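ok so I'm stuck.
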Amino acid sequence: MHTKGPWKAESVKSEGTLVYKRIVAGNKAVAFAGVYKGHDAEANARLIEQAPAMLAELEKITAMFKNICEYNNDGWYSHQVEGDAIEDAEEAIRKARGE
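replied:
not stuck anymore, here's the structure
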């Protein structure tokens, strides 16, 4: 299991084309990342920082849709959810958990 959030990205140093970020949970470092300078650098750091929150929300949304499916055995799920959205979400959750 991953370190519980919230996570925060802190700039450590800048060197050449890289900005080094320390990802922390409270006062514990959980990761270090070298992100390339430019418009993507801060966005990439924010994405890493928000990973625990996004995983938690994906788990809630997936469970909610599965409950809706259990209540509606009249085909509502298959008509309202595009493609394999729930299965894809469950696969992403398993991968994030290392399962």
